[in-house]
Amino acid sequence: MVKLLFFAGIKERIGVEELYLETSNQTIAQLKNYLQVSYPNLQLDGVLVAINEEFALDDDMVQDNDTIAFIPPVSGG
Amino acid sequence: MMNFFEIIETPINIQSVIDKVIRRNAGAVTTFIGTVRELTEGKKTLYLTYEAYIPMAEKKLKQIAEEVKEKWGDVEIAITHRVGRLDISDVAVVIAVSTPHRKAAYEANEFAMERIKEIVPIWKKEHWETGEEWIGNQQGTKQYKSGKPDEEELHG
Q1: Which CATH superfamily is domain B5-155 in?
Q2: CB A33 within 8 A of CB A5
Q3: Residue B73 C-alpha, separation from nearest chain A C-alpha, in angstroms
């Protein structure tokens, strides 16, 4: 099982802060695709993904028990 | 233990951030104070809401400190960012940098702020009389050359 975390505009679109998914051995790209299909209104362009609090790339693999955060363009400061 | 990199929900005590970097070998301390601006491109902001992925944001602030120390050497740096609702003129972020000489303190402080805007998972939402919007995917904010940060930009 993996934990998905959503922030800012993505959180508002999906309607929850976190989701749990029975999945592993998927790439980040596959996971993004899954979300896009489940939530067609979701804007994932420019959205980065972090695995266990470190930025990941589209072809990185998701492992069981990972925390996957979807990070829209940041605007701190 | 003193935490040099914090995301907090309460007003920032500016002096306490500065005190973290005070040391005998410092001859200069620069402090950047980011405050909530009322007008952005002529539009009147009522207030802002900041949100953060707190554990990762604190980790990325530490990464910025490591980058700063690598570039400028003898530097001490402390950063506190506030989240939640902030009104006009409230302090959103404080960066304090101390170095033996002033030039490095100015430069390192500016660098740290630029990096916050690139890699630290913090978001702000502008609230106007006519609506609200998460800032980040509109003009005037950070645009990455390739549409997303490259390895160098993310990992330093």
Answers
A1: Molybdopterin biosynthesis MoaE subunit (3.90.1170.40)
A2: no
A3: 24
